[in-house]
Amino acid sequence: SHYPVLDEMLGFQYYLNKKFVEFYKTVDKDMLNKYRAQLSIHLLFFYNTQSLQSALNDVECDRIHQAAVNIRTVYESIPKMYYISLYPEENELILVHEHIIGMPFEKAVKEIKSEDAIAYLNGKELDIQTKEDLEDFNKKYSPYGFIKALYNKKQRESIESLYDKFSNSTHPNITRNRTAVTYDAKNTELFY
What we know:
By secondary structure, the protein is an all-alpha fold.
C-alpha cells in the first residue's frame, strides 16, 4: 500500500541528484574543495537514491524485510541531513565522528590527531581528553543524537518506534515476521 510513496521518494532523490550534478558542472572546482565538508551532504542524497531503488526492487519482489533494511538507512539519514542543513558548521565534526565511530578511546584520540581528521576540521584539532568526552561526542552525532536535537519528545517516540520496526528487519530475529505482511508467492512470480 506504500509503494506509491516509496516511488515518489525515489523520484525526489533522483531529482535532487540531477540538480546537484547540474550545479556541480557550473561551479569552480577550487571553491568546491574549500566547501567539501559542507557539500558532502550530497553523498547522503546519492546513497539514499541507491537505498530507495533497492527497496523499491525488494518491494516489487515481496522481500519486505530487505526493503525495510534499505529504508532504515534512508530513515536514519533524513534527520542527519536535516541537522547538517541547520548546522552546516558542525558537518566537519560529523565527518570526524564517522571517521572514529566504534574505535576504542585510545585509538579514537590518536585518529582525532591524524592528518585526515585535521583535514576534515580545516586544520583545527578536536579536543577530546577523556572517555566521557568521547562518549558525549559520539552520542551527539549518533542517529538518536540527531533525533533528540531536532524533535520534541512525542515526535521522537514516534520516530524511534518506526525505526525499531525497521531495525527488527535488520537483525537476525526469528520473530521479525510480526512486523511484516503475509508473504505472497504471486507477487514474487510476477516480478521474476
